[in-house]
Design a protein that fits this description.
The chain is of the alpha/beta class. The protein folds into two domains: 208 residues, Metallo-dependent phosphatases (Purple Acid Phosphatase, chain A, domain 2); 49 residues, no CATH class. It is 42% helix and 20% strand. A five-stranded mixed β-sheet has the order 3-2-1-9-10.
Length: 277
Amino acid sequence: MKIAVLSDVHGNLPALEAVLDDIEHWGPDRVVANGDLVNRGPDSPGVLRRLKERWPAAVTLRGNHETFVLACLNADFPTEGMRGRIKRFARWTFEQLGSERIDEIQHWADHLDLDDLEGGAVHFTHGSRLGNRDGVHPRTPEADLGPKLGDARDLFVSSHTHWPMVRAYQGNLVVNTGSVGSPFDRDPRACYARLSFSQGRWRAAIRRLDYDRAAAERSFEDTGFLQAVGPLGRLMLQEFRSSRGLMGPWMRSYHQAVLDGELGLDESVERLLREYR
């Protein structure tokens, strides 16, 4: 049994193409797309289209960025004022995807349990049992893993943090797939997980792949993403360039100050970029 798990593509089509080429060469029995295929990047429609073209049987699960985009369906989703500017990237993705793809995403599950495999029980989710924004990181203390993993499984597969990981916990294997389109561990290569069951146990390997990053960067401009999204789009582009998470630090340091009118959105982004040079 072989399973390929990819996640956190974030609209990066060239990175996805490289991963799908590698998956096709490996020849797994199943492919799981573990959330955050869309948003926070320039070509979400292209990513969904290409995955369906090349691996139509792939199981697609919902991540926090699919949840962000689906929030645009709510009548109270902000479109004006500062809250609207901050949420503009989700609205732009929502509009780019269109009603048919939005309807598809609404039907994606949050979790996948496979209990009928030759290797026992496997659980897939974007974050953890605590939610799709609560991930499992290489630095997560072992004492915190229990609530995140929930009921014991032979193999627990997570994503979300953009940091790949393979670790043992109480006799079970815990894997984080890393990110296809925007790794945060300072390694710019596309990342996904290969899972295999043989000789009575599961094994996991993290694959890192080079791809056309120049084409991926051009798409931030060519698709209209940077112009439409504004200052936070620049921050997301810098995340891609540096392979380092920046939106989290911006949220912690500047989000509330911008909402309170103490600091402009453009200036907050400039300050953060200076801090993280």
